[in-house]
Amino acid sequence: MSGPRVVLTGATGFIGSAVLRELASRRGRADSGRGPHITAVARRRPPQAHQDLADTWVTADLSRPDTLRGLCEGADVLLHLACALGPDPAACAAVNVHGTAALMRQARRAGTPRVVHLSTAAVYGPGPHRGADVHDLVPAPASAASRTRLAGEACALAAGATVLRPGLVLGRGDRWVVPALSELLARVPARWDGGRGLLSAVDVTGLARLIACLALATPRAPAGVFHASHPEPVRCGDLLAALAAHRVLPVADRDLPWEQCLERLHATPGRISERQFALLARDHWYRSERIWELARCAPGPAPVELLGEAADWYRGEVAAP
């Protein structure tokens, strides 16, 4: 008897490639014939190192719904992890809204019984947010990417999906969180607001384990929206200190009040906005225990404890002190 047939979109992306590796490892550990059959979906031909991780590779583009036709036929699970993150509203809408809607139509047409859809806690917009559950907050997205990802959630929920909203995702392949911290430390060299901001974060390998469990576990998680960070928030100051200890970032050895942080930020122009600075420096944490319990998946070590595994990656992405 063959194992579940899993369709994975975004299979060459930051999170998608981690999920692909996790699924492939479970295929190897499973009893003969019971591991997942993986159909990996990407816009381009996969890197050589990824080719053997999936049973089948399919080239498809969410901005071209005709390329999605028949993608879910025979699938037991759809893991929709692909998205557009750029600043162009039209490009984001084409992928995150219209592409997601087209993909969910394919899943419904094929009768795919299990759908997991990746979103983001950025849909909540400016904080601070302190220990909120999903139903405690009204989304107020502040960017084209987050606005369209929120709209995409509605398409997925209509197809009965389990929707995940992780916070900051750390680990090998991260090109946003730690590079942004590096820029911000150069512009505002201090522990911002004393480093006491609490942040929801998750290591990409932990998130991949969670998604794989949701794909394969019995019974399946219910439809609905769930926070998907590590249950324990991390202090901003602890995150900066850990990255400094791994020689990824310089040491921040003084505290600066928030208003002075903003003055320094605006005095030194850069890529990261005040809104993004606040997202990384002030309270943005969300209750996430429920989804780990439903997936029967142990959260594992806190993401700060796993930074050493990605330190060489990060040192290659940012200028080491």
Chart the SSEs and their pairings.
Elements: E1 5-9, H1 14-29, E2 37-42, H2 48-51, E3 56-59, E4 77-80, H3 89-110, E5 114-118, E6 129-132, H4 144-158, E7 162-165, E8 168-170, H5 177-187, E9 191-192, E10 198-199, E11 201-203, H6 204-216, E12 224-227, E13 234-235, H7 236-245, E14 255-256, H8 258-267, H9 274-281, E15 284-286, H10 289-295, H11 311-317
Parallel strand pairs: 1-2, 1-4, 2-3, 4-5, 5-7, 6-15, 7-12, 8-11, 9-14
Antiparallel strand pairs: 10-13
Walk me through what this model shows.
The protein is an alpha/beta fold and 321 residues long. Helix content is 38%, strand content 17%. The protein has helices at residues 14-29, 48-51, 89-110, 144-158, 177-187, 204-216, 236-245, 258-267, 274-281, 289-295, 311-317; strands at 5-9, 37-42, 56-59, 77-80, 114-118, 129-132, 162-165, 168-170, 191-192, 198-199, 201-203, 224-227, 234-235, 255-256, 284-286. The protein has a 7-stranded parallel beta sheet with strand order 3-2-1-4-5-7-12, with helices on both faces. Strands 6-15 form a two-stranded parallel ribbon. A two-stranded parallel sheet has the order 8-11. Strand 1, helix 1 and strand 2 form a beta-alpha-beta unit. Helix 3 (89-110) runs parallel beside helix 4 and helix 6 (204-216) packs across helix 10. The mean pLDDT is 94.
